[in-house]
Amino acid sequence: MKHIKKIIMVLFVGCLTLGLISCKKETENLASITEWPEFELTGGSFVNLAVSAESFVDPGVSARYTSTGAAATVTTTGSVNMQVPGLYQLLYSAKDLSQQWTIDVPRNILVTNDLLTENYAGNYTVKTVNGFQTGTTPFATKVENLRAMLAAGSTTDRGTRAVTQMIPGQLGWYMFSDINWQASPMRMQFFDFGGGTFQPTPTSSNFGSIEGLIEYDPATQTFTIFGIIPEGVNAGLTWCAVYTKI
To answer: How far is CA 176 from each of CA 73, 134, 149, 187, rounded to the nearest angstrom?
Structure first.
């Protein structure tokens, strides 16, 4: 049976907030002089929904100030197109108790053709290609060079590493525990879009920001990850790690 590997590449440009709280104004050292509202997102901060002709219905959100019990006014920005598969984000905003600063809390909605049923979390044997690619050669060419080295068996076993769910019990959002070929761990988060298609998400590392390409072979339950550092002193550095499920 012929298996088709589905490939998706995401260039990490700009900033996508994934489950993190951000503030529109500098909030460092504000905790001692103000109080932030506590948000409650009905249904959680990450939701997987199947494509539908129906409009998206927000599960709901509330926010309250602990000291007074008063409700904070919450505004919502963003939209979800239930007819088009993709990753969408809603931002819920409310002001601090003094009404001077604004805090945002995201909800990420992953719309897929069908509800996800496959759980990719677990332990994997990992190997990395010996060596890496540098310079200004196009990324696609570097990937093919690394792929040839992988096919030739020029790899080093890295033992067992894990793929974990970013939200326990929730399918669709995962993290590779380490895709690095050196001692310093380099994590990568990714989303499952169904059908063997996976999208990496913005990741920071000791070497700089990362762009990524993920391939998946369902026959062997193997992820092949190509990473590249696009900017900074390590610009152009490209490597490959392979995760095979145990």
So the answer is: 38, 23, 22, 6
